[in-house]
Task: structure prediction
Amino acid sequence: MRFSGNKPKVSVIIPVFNSGETLKPCLEAVFKSDYGDFEVIVVDDCSTDNSREIAEEFDCRLVTQNKRSGPALARNRGAEDAGGRFLIFMDSDVMPHPQTVGQLIEPLEKGWDSCIGIYEPCPGYKNFSSVYKNIFIWHYHNSANGKVDWFWTACGSVKKDIFCSLGGFSESYSYNSIEDIEFGYRMTKNGYRILLNKEAVAKHLRYFGIGGLLKNDFRKGRDWTYLNLSKNPSLSLKHPVARLKSRGRAMIMNLAFIFLTLFSVAKIEFLPLAVVVFFVLPFMEKRFFSSLSAHGGRFAVALAVFIKPIDDLAISAGSFIGGMRFLFNKRMIK
Result:
């Protein structure tokens, strides 16, 4: 703990589940912060690896769950035990810069209700899927400015009284999903302001394989769409990836490719058109490819030409399932 007096000003809350590979560098980075008045609370969600032992090596408070309940509940449990009037939520696979804690707190002291940071463009793992996913997140966050309507648990702060008054994160999400996006929506709906501070930077240490990437994005597409349709459409999410308009474009793109490919089986004349659609339509997002080229190199761009349509298809499939779930639930209510 790094604070004087009875209570710290800031509580840094880190949920963990089998985070042995990344927790130590995460905590090392947190304790190198040049902000001096904070405590660290690690909430262990029934890990079966050495996560607890790693947490015990540091001057932090370890809270253990009785049963595995997911990161949303773990973060809420950490907030309950927090002594600070400002909360910082941080994932166990990020390494904040020394200035990051202070850069997340300063806006709150100046009147903002919440502040979120941003990843470095270059992640800890250098395999293609990890680089692609990290730059994907970085690019879309970097395309936003100032006030936003989403929260981000990877690296975000909020006033504790506001967090508690809104009931914390929705515990209906029992896995890593969009509980932070949903919480940001409730903040915005209730008139609270969230600042995206691009100077509050952290390095992402999570490893993604192709399968993990597609599974993650399918889930996010499904849950984003359900959330968008379930709430007041006049307050539609402005998150660059979550917007239904963006997902609609991706779905049309992928349906065009699928149908042209199927038609090619019957008539080979459709094959050249399918190939053109496959290679050309991803470059409708030329800004993303430009970011990928700048930070991942030409080889990453070449691979992304093939992976981006597949990833968009996974998100679009998730969006379709989320839409069907919404319509089914709405019909059941009636």
Observations:
- The chain has a mean pLDDT of 85.
- Residues 10-207 form a domain with the Spore Coat Polysaccharide Biosynthesis Protein SpsA; Chain A fold (CATH 3.90.550.10).
